[in-house]
Amino acid sequence: MQTSDARMLRGAAIPTSVVGVGAVLIGLLAAGAKGALAAALGSVVVIAFFSISALVVSWAARYSAQTMMLAALASYMVKILAVMVLVTTMDGVSIWDTKVFGWTVIGLALLWIAAEFRVVLQRRPYIDEPENVLDRSP
């Protein structure tokens, strides 16, 4: 993993984890122990899914930009399908509050994306110029 990828992962995982702890407390206050369990499970799901996705994209970036894009799109589709399967199978579960779970997943996913965006905005832009470029100046 390159340092920029590690910075991106840390920059998103740390705030999401902190807010996840807050979500557990809010779930506890809103729906008792079932709400706290739901928020904890939602936090684990978001952090695990997005971390695995970041690792896969980082691995694919070592090969080529096209492979990285393919890995990013594939991991996005897998995340969407996996969350859809989780939400569908947990619809009738009474061991935790499904509404708290859903709102925690939505909130933390949006936070993760915003944190990644913030890390990208803090980087200095660069231009990657190939070595074998023909000079086409007039």
Task: Offer a quick outline of the entry.
The protein has 138 residues and is an all-alpha fold. The chain is 79% helix and 0% strand. It is elongated and about 70 Å long.
Explain this structure:
By secondary structure, this protein is mainly alpha-helical. Helix content is 79%, strand content 0%. The protein has helices at 3-61, 65-89, 98-122. It has three helices and no strands. The model has no long low-confidence stretch (mean pLDDT 86). It is elongated and about 70 Å long. Helix 1 (3-61) packs across helix 2 and helix 1 (3-61) packs across helix 3.
Supply the key terms.
single chain, 138 residues, mainly alpha, 79% helix
Low-confidence stretches: none
With helices defined by DSSP (H or I, 4 residues minimum), what is the helix count?
3
Distance between the termini: 42 Å
Report the order of strands and helices: HHH
Structural class: mainly alpha
Report strand %: under 5%
Principal-axes geometry comes out as elongated
Q: If you compute it from the alpha carbons, what radius of gyration comes out, rounded to the nearest whole angstrom? A: 19 Å
